[in-house]
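We examine the record.
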Amino acid sequence: MALPRILALVLAGGAGGRLELLTERRAKPAVPFGGVYRLIDFPLSNCQHSQISDVWVSVQFHPTSLHDHLANGRPWDLDRTVGGLLTLPPYKGTERGGWNTGTADSLWRHADLIREFDADALVVASADAVYKLDYREVVHAHLGSGAEVTMVTTEVAPDDASRYGIVEVGDGGRVTGYAYKPDEPATTTATNEVFVFNPSPTLDRLEALNGNVGDEGLEDLGTHLLPAQTAEGLARAYPLDGYWRDVGTVPAYWEAHREFIAEEPPLDLDDPRWPVHTRGGRRSAARVLSQAHVEDSLISGGTRVGGDVRGSVLSPGVVVEAGATVVDSVLLPGVRVRAGATVTRSVLDDGVDVGRGASIGGEGEITLVGRAARVAGDSELAAGARFPEPEG
């Protein structure tokens, strides 16, 4: 029996506004995670381990930040003569050209290409979550279910459920109810933004919906498409039992890093059976100087640590000078914390320079400092502050 022909579409075009300063100059999927990775590394690595060799990435906001990282797709074995990695930017020239206004709208705009590919199953995944999943197993379950869509689901905290598409699941995994970001969620079972569709019926349905939705358009998958498929009994759920974390907000991004500096992190990113791949090889080994003190932290290549680092994640090229203190924080590439400075419960974007004696953050809300900002010596940014990058 021939293997099913699978196409993966990674939706990497969202603005990522909830990440605030972190996405002012980069696409959300290009945001660093865990020191050396980018968020898009997770769905791309899942595709590689699932033996899916045709992967399309829909890009839109700050596309160069993604193109630079994706290059030719080599880290994920997608640099192929036939198939492999294809990026899909916004375009003009047909009625489907223009700016994407949501995930369903993006799918509709690429419908002609998807039909031409003629896949047996279409895997659609977002690029703003941290998880491992064998997409091919979901495809096999989907193709044997008679469903038009299979929604991968996970359990979320009750006070967080209104951020997601919430499903009610009946016998045999059939989805009996679906609500997109409801004010009063019926359950805590949420879609984790991974879906397997039957391509032709789904695209036909999108065409019909597009003619009826009015000026607002198709918007996101959860706005019109998934409710329609659910209402006709054509949706199934596939529960993800392992770790999944949406890092689309600053607090969630910070909290996820806290989970990965634990003695036993929720995912082994270096598991030889399922490593997370990224574009690398551009940094030397980390240097921890004799006077440094480091505990419960992730230290990336190319960093130099001479101060006190506790419960933190240091990305490539970070420098923590002797006499500086970094506690419970995430420092993105190229940050420098100078002698006598203190950084607490903060996220510092690329190239931030914290002057001698400066104090950033404290107990309470996460403090966020934008790219290439200069925090003058002896200045103080209170907990919860938002310090943007300099203009010009």
In short: The mean pLDDT is 93. DSSP finds eight helices and 31 strands in the chain.
